[in-house]
Amino acid sequence: MQAMSLAELARQIGATLHLSDGDSPETPVHGLATLSGAGNGQISFLSNSKYRSQLQDTSAQAVILHPDDLPHCPCSALVTENPYVGFAKAAQCLDNTPDAAYGIAPTAVIADDVTLGSNVAIGDNAVIASGVVLGDNVQVGAGCVIGQGSHIGARTKLWANVTVYHRVRIGDDCLVQSGTVIGADGFGYANDNGQWLKIPQLGTVIIGNRVEIGASTTIDRGALDDTVIHDGVIIDNQVQIAHNVVIKENTAMAGCSVIAGSTTIGRNCTIGGLSGINGHITIGDNVHFTGMSMVTKDIDQPGVYSSGVPAETNREWRKNMVALRRLPETARRVKELEKHVK
Description:
Blueprint: E1 4-5, H1 6-13, E2 16-18, E3 28-29, E4 31-32, E5 42-45, E6 62-65, E7 76-79, H2 83-93, E8 109-110, E9 115-116, E10 121-122, E11 127-128, E12 133-134, E13 139-140, E14 145-146, E15 151-152, E16 157-158, E17 163-164, E18 169-170, E19 175-176, E20 181-184, E21 189-192, E22 195-198, E23 205-207, E24 212-213, E25 218-220, E26 227-229, E27 234-235, E28 240-241, E29 246-247, E30 252-253, E31 258-259, E32 264-265, E33 270-271, E34 276-277, E35 282-283, E36 287-289, E37 294-295, E38 303-305, H3 314-325, H4 327-341
Parallel strand pairs: 4-5, 5-6, 6-7, 8-11, 9-12, 10-13, 11-14, 12-15, 13-16, 14-17, 15-18, 16-19, 17-20, 18-23, 19-24, 20-25, 23-26, 24-27, 25-28, 26-29, 27-30, 28-31, 29-32, 30-33, 31-34, 32-35, 33-36, 34-37, 36-38
Antiparallel strand pairs: 1-3, 2-7, 21-22
């Protein structure tokens, strides 16, 4: 990304520009850094009071901050009510991430009946199977495989070594990080007198628009109906989403979380890292699970839910485990005492 003036950056992120001595609206900025690490030509931000002590000593060209912090800022400031959102927008403006591919690599293998939109880029050794449709400005990184009949929407970017199985549909403006697998078979088997009989997974995966999927995540295809990820969902690295799961709009899943089959997750939910969600249940809208939550039943009321046990010293943990094993006996004695009191 070329350098951008302070005035233009302020306009792009919706902030009010306050200039310090020596700066002008046309002063260029070219990158972002932390308050303690920023220098000339770099933007920083303050959204967490934990770092307020670093503001007065920063060498940044300008800082994105809340109006309350403006009196303490030694440099130019881009003032906004939500500095973290301002930082995110500034990062987009100054993003220097390369494309996943440039042009059509000569080593790419592309079936004769593939439909390519305008300005499609396909990297080295990518394989695009029969009947695939790639929308305008799609980027397919090196080593990706896109299976028969799949559709990839406009401006979607697949980083290297993503595997998209057959008949998968991915919407517009999506981002899929390396190593992700979309549309592999769900875990469907029947037990026939001790022998596992595979159930072919005949559905697919449908992913909406503006969905982002982290590295090495797996999203299984449906058994009969489809696995569906709605618009605006964000999924972290190393997440497992089983067959026939439905995740509704703008829900976020942190790393190493797992959703078992045929579960529906509502809109605007957040799922903390290492959480496990049981199959065949429904989670309503605006439900938030903290890290390491184990979810075993339907939840229809919005709010924050937790079940993970925070770390403690081994000595404390051993004592607590002893008390936990005695819990049934303790409960029985409490009931007897309650009867006696009554």
